[in-house]
Amino acid sequence: MPQHDTLHFTDRGLYCPAGDFHIDPWRPVPRALITHGHADHARFGHGSYLATDIAAPVLRHRLGDIAVDTVRYGTSLTVGGARVSFHPAGHVPGSAQIRVEVAGQVWVVSGDYKLENDSLSTPFEPVRCHAFISECTFGLPVFRWRPQAEIAAQIAGWWRDCAAQGRTAVLGAYSLGKAQRLLSLLDPAQGPILCHSSIEDTTDVLRAQGLALPPTIRATADTGAKSHPGALVMTPPSAMAGTWLKRYGPVSTAFASGWMALRGVRRRRGADREFVISDHADWDGLNRAVAATGAERVFATHGYTDVFARWLASSGIDARPVQTEFGTADADAAETPEPAQAQADPSADGSGTAAPGGAGRIAARD
Protein backbone atom coordinates (compact mmCIF):
# COMPACT_ATOMS: atom_id res chain seq x y z
CA MET A 1 0.00 0.00 0.00
CA PRO A 2 1.40 3.47 -0.87
CA GLN A 3 2.51 5.61 2.04
CA HIS A 4 -0.13 8.25 1.42
CA ASP A 5 -2.92 5.69 1.89
CA THR A 6 -2.15 4.99 5.56
CA LEU A 7 -4.02 8.10 6.71
CA HIS A 8 -6.07 10.56 4.70
CA PHE A 9 -6.71 14.23 5.49
CA THR A 10 -10.46 14.72 5.03
CA ASP A 11 -13.08 17.36 5.82
CA ARG A 12 -13.99 15.38 8.93
CA GLY A 13 -10.47 14.80 10.19
CA LEU A 14 -7.66 12.28 9.85
CA TYR A 15 -9.05 9.06 8.38
CA CYS A 16 -7.62 5.55 8.19
CA PRO A 17 -9.32 3.62 5.35
CA ALA A 18 -7.82 0.28 6.40
CA GLY A 19 -9.25 0.57 9.91
CA ASP A 20 -12.31 2.68 9.02
CA PHE A 21 -11.71 5.13 11.87
CA HIS A 22 -10.87 8.81 12.34
CA ILE A 23 -8.36 10.38 14.72
CA ASP A 24 -9.47 13.51 16.61
CA PRO A 25 -12.21 14.25 14.04
CA TRP A 26 -13.88 17.65 14.09
CA ARG A 27 -17.19 16.43 12.60
CA PRO A 28 -19.33 13.48 13.72
CA VAL A 29 -18.00 10.07 12.61
CA PRO A 30 -18.90 6.47 13.52
CA ARG A 31 -15.56 5.66 15.21
CA ALA A 32 -13.15 8.18 16.73
CA LEU A 33 -9.73 7.59 18.25
CA ILE A 34 -8.96 10.49 20.61
CA THR A 35 -5.52 11.76 21.60
CA HIS A 36 -6.69 13.80 24.62
CA GLY A 37 -9.60 15.66 26.17
CA HIS A 38 -9.17 19.24 24.93
CA ALA A 39 -12.23 20.30 22.99
CA ASP A 40 -10.52 20.83 19.64
CA HIS A 41 -9.46 17.18 19.71
CA ALA A 42 -12.36 15.54 21.56
CA ARG A 43 -15.77 16.61 20.30
CA PHE A 44 -19.30 15.45 20.99
CA GLY A 45 -21.34 13.48 18.49
CA HIS A 46 -19.21 10.49 17.47
CA GLY A 47 -20.64 6.99 17.43
CA SER A 48 -17.87 5.54 19.58
CA TYR A 49 -14.64 6.72 21.17
CA LEU A 50 -11.32 5.07 21.92
CA ALA A 51 -8.86 6.78 24.28
CA THR A 52 -6.37 5.93 26.98
CA ASP A 53 -7.69 4.73 30.30
CA ILE A 54 -6.28 7.88 31.90
CA ALA A 55 -7.97 10.24 29.44
CA ALA A 56 -11.41 8.56 29.52
CA PRO A 57 -12.71 10.07 32.80
CA VAL A 58 -12.06 13.60 31.52
CA LEU A 59 -13.76 12.75 28.23
CA ARG A 60 -16.86 11.58 30.10
CA HIS A 61 -16.76 14.65 32.31
CA ARG A 62 -16.59 16.99 29.33
CA LEU A 63 -18.77 15.17 26.80
CA GLY A 64 -21.33 13.42 29.00
CA ASP A 65 -22.81 9.99 28.34
CA ILE A 66 -20.64 8.72 25.49
CA ALA A 67 -19.48 5.25 24.48
CA VAL A 68 -15.79 5.16 25.40
CA ASP A 69 -13.51 2.17 25.09
CA THR A 70 -10.11 2.45 26.74
CA VAL A 71 -6.61 1.20 26.13
CA ARG A 72 -3.39 1.37 28.10
CA TYR A 73 -0.26 2.99 26.76
CA GLY A 74 1.70 0.66 24.51
CA THR A 75 -1.05 -1.95 24.06
CA SER A 76 -1.46 -2.94 20.41
CA LEU A 77 -4.96 -3.37 19.00
CA THR A 78 -6.21 -4.58 15.65
CA VAL A 79 -8.82 -2.23 14.20
CA GLY A 80 -9.96 -3.51 10.85
CA GLY A 81 -6.84 -3.82 8.73
CA ALA A 82 -4.73 -1.54 10.94
CA ARG A 83 -2.61 -2.07 14.02
CA VAL A 84 -3.10 0.75 16.51
CA SER A 85 -1.40 1.71 19.77
CA PHE A 86 -1.38 4.77 22.03
CA HIS A 87 1.85 6.25 23.40
CA PRO A 88 2.52 9.02 25.96
CA ALA A 89 2.48 12.57 24.60
CA GLY A 90 3.29 14.42 27.84
CA HIS A 91 0.76 17.16 27.03
CA VAL A 92 -1.84 16.63 29.78
CA PRO A 93 -2.73 13.57 31.89
CA GLY A 94 -3.81 10.75 29.60
CA SER A 95 -2.71 12.46 26.38
CA ALA A 96 -1.39 10.19 23.66
CA GLN A 97 0.28 9.93 20.32
CA ILE A 98 -1.51 7.38 18.15
CA ARG A 99 0.58 4.92 16.13
CA VAL A 100 -1.10 3.40 13.07
CA GLU A 101 0.51 0.59 11.09
CA VAL A 102 -0.88 -0.61 7.77
CA ALA A 103 0.96 -3.00 5.44
CA GLY A 104 4.30 -2.24 7.05
CA GLN A 105 3.90 1.55 6.92
CA VAL A 106 3.88 3.29 10.31
CA TRP A 107 2.31 6.70 10.80
CA VAL A 108 2.12 8.54 14.13
CA VAL A 109 -0.37 11.28 14.98
CA SER A 110 1.11 13.42 17.72
CA GLY A 111 -1.98 15.20 19.01
CA ASP A 112 -0.52 17.90 21.26
CA TYR A 113 2.71 17.17 23.10
CA LYS A 114 5.60 18.51 25.15
CA LEU A 115 8.93 16.96 25.99
CA GLU A 116 9.53 18.37 29.47
CA ASN A 117 8.47 15.97 32.22
CA ASP A 118 5.98 17.90 34.35
CA SER A 119 5.71 15.06 36.93
CA LEU A 120 1.94 14.97 36.36
CA SER A 121 1.45 13.68 32.80
CA THR A 122 3.08 10.48 31.61
CA PRO A 123 6.29 11.72 29.96
CA PHE A 124 6.55 11.95 26.18
CA GLU A 125 7.96 8.87 24.45
CA PRO A 126 9.22 9.15 20.86
CA VAL A 127 7.78 6.57 18.46
CA ARG A 128 9.71 5.56 15.36
CA CYS A 129 7.68 5.94 12.19
CA HIS A 130 7.72 6.59 8.47
CA ALA A 131 5.41 9.61 8.72
CA PHE A 132 4.80 11.95 11.65
CA ILE A 133 1.73 14.18 11.85
CA SER A 134 2.86 16.86 14.28
CA GLU A 135 1.47 19.94 15.90
CA CYS A 136 3.69 23.01 15.84
CA THR A 137 1.78 25.49 17.99
CA PHE A 138 5.01 27.17 19.02
CA GLY A 139 6.94 26.42 15.85
CA LEU A 140 9.22 29.46 15.87
CA PRO A 141 12.68 29.81 17.46
CA VAL A 142 11.48 32.70 19.62
CA PHE A 143 9.63 30.12 21.71
CA ARG A 144 12.10 28.48 24.07
CA TRP A 145 10.89 27.50 27.53
CA ARG A 146 12.72 27.85 30.82
CA PRO A 147 12.79 24.83 33.20
CA GLN A 148 9.57 24.21 35.10
CA ALA A 149 11.26 24.60 38.49
CA GLU A 150 12.33 28.12 37.54
CA ILE A 151 8.77 29.13 36.67
CA ALA A 152 7.48 27.56 39.88
CA ALA A 153 9.88 29.73 41.88
CA GLN A 154 8.69 32.83 40.00
CA ILE A 155 5.05 32.07 40.79
CA ALA A 156 5.81 31.39 44.46
CA GLY A 157 7.68 34.70 44.74
CA TRP A 158 4.82 36.64 43.11
CA TRP A 159 2.27 35.00 45.41
CA ARG A 160 4.41 35.82 48.44
CA ASP A 161 4.72 39.46 47.35
CA CYS A 162 0.96 39.68 46.82
CA ALA A 163 0.26 38.47 50.34
CA ALA A 164 2.77 40.94 51.79
CA GLN A 165 1.01 43.77 49.92
CA GLY A 166 -2.47 42.69 51.04
CA ARG A 167 -3.46 41.61 47.53
CA THR A 168 -5.07 38.40 46.34
CA ALA A 169 -3.03 36.63 43.65
CA VAL A 170 -5.25 35.75 40.67
CA LEU A 171 -3.66 33.37 38.16
CA GLY A 172 -5.22 32.68 34.75
CA ALA A 173 -4.67 29.18 33.38
CA TYR A 174 -6.51 26.78 31.08
CA SER A 175 -8.92 24.49 32.96
CA LEU A 176 -7.59 21.13 31.80
CA GLY A 177 -3.90 20.40 32.08
CA LYS A 178 -2.31 23.78 32.65
CA ALA A 179 -4.27 24.48 35.84
CA GLN A 180 -3.45 21.10 37.38
CA ARG A 181 0.20 21.39 36.36
CA LEU A 182 0.42 24.75 38.12
CA LEU A 183 -1.42 23.41 41.16
CA SER A 184 1.17 20.65 41.44
CA LEU A 185 3.88 23.33 41.61
CA LEU A 186 2.23 25.31 44.43
CA ASP A 187 3.01 24.91 48.12
CA PRO A 188 -0.29 24.87 50.08
CA ALA A 189 1.64 25.93 53.19
CA GLN A 190 2.08 29.31 51.54
CA GLY A 191 -1.65 30.06 51.71
CA PRO A 192 -5.11 28.87 50.68
CA ILE A 193 -5.59 27.88 47.04
CA LEU A 194 -8.99 28.67 45.55
CA CYS A 195 -10.20 27.51 42.14
CA HIS A 196 -12.90 28.64 39.75
CA SER A 197 -15.57 25.95 39.41
CA SER A 198 -14.47 24.87 35.92
CA ILE A 199 -10.95 24.21 37.22
CA GLU A 200 -12.15 22.64 40.46
CA ASP A 201 -14.50 20.25 38.62
CA THR A 202 -11.74 19.05 36.30
CA THR A 203 -9.28 18.80 39.20
CA ASP A 204 -11.77 16.62 41.10
CA VAL A 205 -11.88 14.20 38.14
CA LEU A 206 -8.09 13.96 37.95
CA ARG A 207 -7.65 13.78 41.71
CA ALA A 208 -10.08 10.84 41.80
CA GLN A 209 -7.71 9.02 39.45
CA GLY A 210 -4.93 9.30 42.00
CA LEU A 211 -3.05 12.34 40.70
CA ALA A 212 -1.12 14.03 43.50
CA LEU A 213 -2.56 17.53 43.71
CA PRO A 214 -2.63 19.91 46.69
CA PRO A 215 -5.88 20.61 48.54
CA THR A 216 -7.96 23.33 46.91
CA ILE A 217 -11.09 25.28 47.77
CA ARG A 218 -13.93 25.94 45.35
CA ALA A 219 -14.40 29.67 44.77
CA THR A 220 -18.01 30.53 45.60
CA ALA A 221 -20.08 33.52 46.63
CA ASP A 222 -19.02 32.80 50.22
CA THR A 223 -15.29 32.99 49.59
CA GLY A 224 -13.30 36.19 49.45
CA ALA A 225 -10.41 38.19 50.84
CA LYS A 226 -11.89 38.24 54.35
CA SER A 227 -12.49 34.50 54.58
CA HIS A 228 -9.25 33.54 52.83
CA PRO A 229 -6.57 36.20 53.28
CA GLY A 230 -3.34 35.64 51.40
CA ALA A 231 -5.03 33.30 48.92
CA LEU A 232 -4.11 32.43 45.36
CA VAL A 233 -7.14 32.17 43.09
CA MET A 234 -6.82 30.15 39.90
CA THR A 235 -9.28 30.87 37.10
CA PRO A 236 -9.66 30.32 33.36
CA PRO A 237 -8.44 33.38 31.41
CA SER A 238 -11.98 33.91 30.09
CA ALA A 239 -13.19 34.59 33.63
CA MET A 240 -10.46 37.07 34.56
CA ALA A 241 -12.65 40.06 33.77
CA GLY A 242 -15.62 38.84 35.80
CA THR A 243 -17.15 40.91 38.59
CA TRP A 244 -16.89 37.87 40.85
CA LEU A 245 -13.26 38.78 41.55
CA LYS A 246 -14.32 41.99 43.32
CA ARG A 247 -15.00 40.11 46.53
CA TYR A 248 -11.29 39.29 46.74
CA GLY A 249 -10.45 42.94 47.30
CA PRO A 250 -7.28 44.34 45.73
CA VAL A 251 -5.90 41.75 43.34
CA SER A 252 -2.75 41.18 41.32
CA THR A 253 -3.41 39.35 38.05
CA ALA A 254 -1.12 37.01 36.13
CA PHE A 255 -1.32 34.73 33.13
CA ALA A 256 0.56 31.47 32.63
CA SER A 257 0.98 30.69 28.95
CA GLY A 258 3.56 30.11 26.27
CA TRP A 259 2.10 33.11 24.44
CA MET A 260 3.43 35.31 27.23
CA ALA A 261 6.77 35.09 25.42
CA LEU A 262 5.38 37.62 22.95
CA ARG A 263 5.38 41.30 23.90
CA GLY A 264 2.20 42.11 21.97
CA VAL A 265 0.24 39.35 23.68
CA ARG A 266 1.45 40.52 27.08
CA ARG A 267 0.36 44.05 26.22
CA ARG A 268 -3.12 42.94 25.14
CA ARG A 269 -3.62 40.84 28.23
CA GLY A 270 -2.60 43.71 30.49
CA ALA A 271 -1.83 41.54 33.52
CA ASP A 272 0.43 42.54 36.36
CA ARG A 273 2.63 39.49 35.80
CA GLU A 274 3.22 36.92 33.08
CA PHE A 275 4.67 33.45 33.40
CA VAL A 276 5.95 31.76 30.25
CA ILE A 277 5.00 28.10 30.61
CA SER A 278 3.26 25.84 28.12
CA ASP A 279 1.94 22.33 27.76
CA HIS A 280 3.11 22.35 24.13
CA ALA A 281 6.64 21.68 22.91
CA ASP A 282 8.80 24.72 22.24
CA TRP A 283 10.95 25.18 19.13
CA ASP A 284 13.75 22.95 20.38
CA GLY A 285 11.30 20.34 21.63
CA LEU A 286 9.53 20.15 18.27
CA ASN A 287 12.80 19.61 16.46
CA ARG A 288 13.98 16.97 18.93
CA ALA A 289 10.67 15.14 18.67
CA VAL A 290 10.74 15.04 14.88
CA ALA A 291 14.35 13.83 14.86
CA ALA A 292 13.59 11.10 17.40
CA THR A 293 10.84 9.62 15.22
CA GLY A 294 13.19 9.12 12.29
CA ALA A 295 10.27 10.09 10.06
CA GLU A 296 10.89 10.61 6.36
CA ARG A 297 7.70 12.62 6.03
CA VAL A 298 6.24 15.22 8.41
CA PHE A 299 2.85 16.91 8.23
CA ALA A 300 2.51 20.11 10.32
CA THR A 301 -1.11 20.45 11.43
CA HIS A 302 -1.61 23.52 13.61
CA GLY A 303 0.46 26.48 14.72
CA TYR A 304 3.22 28.02 12.63
CA THR A 305 2.80 25.28 10.05
CA ASP A 306 4.31 26.95 6.97
CA VAL A 307 7.42 28.11 8.79
CA PHE A 308 8.03 24.82 10.57
CA ALA A 309 7.47 22.75 7.41
CA ARG A 310 9.87 24.93 5.42
CA TRP A 311 12.48 24.59 8.15
CA LEU A 312 12.21 20.80 8.16
CA ALA A 313 12.29 20.69 4.36
CA SER A 314 15.53 22.66 4.40
CA SER A 315 17.13 19.76 6.28
CA GLY A 316 15.97 17.20 3.73
CA ILE A 317 12.71 16.02 5.29
CA ASP A 318 9.62 15.73 3.11
CA ALA A 319 7.57 18.19 5.18
CA ARG A 320 4.39 20.08 4.39
CA PRO A 321 1.67 22.05 6.20
CA VAL A 322 -1.85 20.62 6.41
CA GLN A 323 -5.11 22.48 7.04
CA THR A 324 -7.00 21.18 10.09
CA GLU A 325 -9.49 22.49 12.62
CA PHE A 326 -7.31 21.82 15.63
CA GLY A 327 -6.88 24.85 17.86
CA THR A 328 -10.27 26.37 16.99
CA ALA A 329 -12.69 24.99 19.57
CA ASP A 330 -11.43 26.40 22.89
CA ALA A 331 -11.12 30.17 23.08
CA ASP A 332 -10.18 29.96 26.75
CA ALA A 333 -6.59 30.99 26.21
CA ALA A 334 -6.64 31.82 22.51
CA GLU A 335 -4.15 34.30 21.17
CA THR A 336 -3.42 35.34 17.61
CA PRO A 337 0.03 36.94 17.69
CA GLU A 338 0.47 40.14 15.73
CA PRO A 339 2.58 39.90 12.58
CA ALA A 340 5.48 41.85 14.07
CA GLN A 341 5.78 39.82 17.25
CA ALA A 342 7.42 36.57 16.23
CA GLN A 343 10.52 35.50 14.39
CA ALA A 344 9.77 33.45 11.29
CA ASP A 345 13.34 32.75 10.18
CA PRO A 346 14.27 29.50 11.95
CA SER A 347 17.97 30.15 11.40
CA ALA A 348 17.80 33.34 13.46
CA ASP A 349 17.87 33.78 17.22
CA GLY A 350 14.30 34.98 17.64
CA SER A 351 15.14 38.66 17.97
CA GLY A 352 13.71 39.77 14.62
CA THR A 353 10.17 40.12 13.37
CA ALA A 354 8.04 38.42 10.76
CA ALA A 355 4.49 37.29 10.15
CA PRO A 356 3.34 33.99 11.60
CA GLY A 357 2.87 31.50 8.80
CA GLY A 358 0.60 28.53 8.82
CA ALA A 359 -2.06 26.56 7.09
CA GLY A 360 -3.57 25.90 10.50
CA ARG A 361 -4.76 28.50 12.96
CA ILE A 362 -2.77 29.24 16.10
CA ALA A 363 -3.78 26.75 18.76
CA ALA A 364 -6.26 27.87 21.37
CA ARG A 365 -4.63 26.20 24.32
CA ASP A 366 -1.30 27.30 25.60
Task: Tell me what the structure shows.
- The structure is a single chain.
- The chain is α/β, with parallel strands linked by helices and 366 residues long.
- It has 2 domains: 3-143 and 279-321, Ribonuclease Z/Hydroxyacylglutathione hydrolase-like (Metallo-beta-lactamase, Chain A); 148-275, 3-Layer(aba) Sandwich (Rossmann fold).
- It contains 7 helices and 19 strands.
- The protein has helices spanning 56-63, 148-164, 178-185, 197-208, 263-269, 283-293, 305-314; strands at 8-9, 14-16, 21-23, 31-33, 48-52, 68-71, 77-79, 82-88, 96-102, 105-109, 131-136, 168-172, 193-195, 217-218, 232-235, 251-256, 273-275, 297-303, 318-321.
- The protein has a 7-stranded mixed β-sheet. It has a 6-stranded mixed β-sheet with strand order 1-2-3-4-5-6, with helices on one face.
- A hairpin with a 4-residue loop joins β1 and β2.
- The radius of gyration is 20 Å and the shape is globular.
- The protein starts with 7 loop residues before the first strand and ends in a 45-residue tail after the last strand.
- Mean pLDDT is 90; it is low at 329-334 and 347-364.
